[in-house]
Amino acid sequence: MKKPKMNDQQLIRSLIHLWYSEKAWAEELLRRVFGLTEAREILCKKFRGDHSIPGTNWRYRTHGVGVDIYQTSDVGGIDFDFDKPDPDAWRIQLFLMKQYNAGNLSFDSYRNFIEDEEHFKTLLKQDLPLLIDSSQ
Questions:
Q1: CA distance 52 to 66
Q2: Measured between alpha carbons, how far is 92 from 112 in angstroms, rounded to an integer?
Q3: How many CB atoms within 10 Å of residue 1?
Q4: In sequence order, what DSSP letters do the residues of 25-59 get, joined into one string?
Q5: Torsions phi, psi of 109, nearest 5?
Q6: For residue 78, which of 96, 64, 65 has the smallest C-alpha distance?
Q7: How far apart are CA 4 and CA 2, in angstroms?
Q8: CB atoms within 10 A of CB 17
Q9: Highest mean pLDDT among 61-70, 72-81, 122-131
Q10: How many CB atoms lie under 10 A from the CB of residue 130?
Q11: How much is the pLDDT for 115?
């Protein structure tokens, strides 16, 4: 039996859940690999910049109060700020592209968001705060 197709809000809610999971994974990766007490310690001067993550095929790049974990610039990972527990519209758009390019999202389900960026932006502007609240 074929699964019913998710509507736009369900797809975005699913993407938000994935964002939170990926953020938790990224923070744990940084703590374990670099022996940090808290992941935000990656912002210390000795870790600043763009570096490979030892023992993995991942890289990280620090910026301001955040970090971008990635395989290549537009593939895989997550970009987040340590002072913002929830994603904003820009971060969700970036996350969508990275996860879509990595093959972690259904091409059929998410293609419309990739091909019609304005539609996706409009949905995020309208629904993101409500969807974040309902995802927690």
A1: 16
A2: 15
A3: 3
A4: HHHHHHHHHHT-SSGGGGGSGGG-SEEE-TTSS-E
A5: -70, -40
A6: 96
A7: 6
A8: 13
A9: 61-70
A10: 11
A11: 93
Global pTM reads 0.89
Amino acid identity of 64? G
Alpha helices in 54-116 (DSSP H): 89-101, 107-115
> Are the beta carbons of 107 and 116 closer than 8 angstroms?
no
H/E stretch holding 122: helix 117-135
Asked whether 122 and 4 are in contact (CB, 8 A), the reply is no
> Which residues share a beta bridge with 70?
59
Residue reference for tokens 């998410």? 110
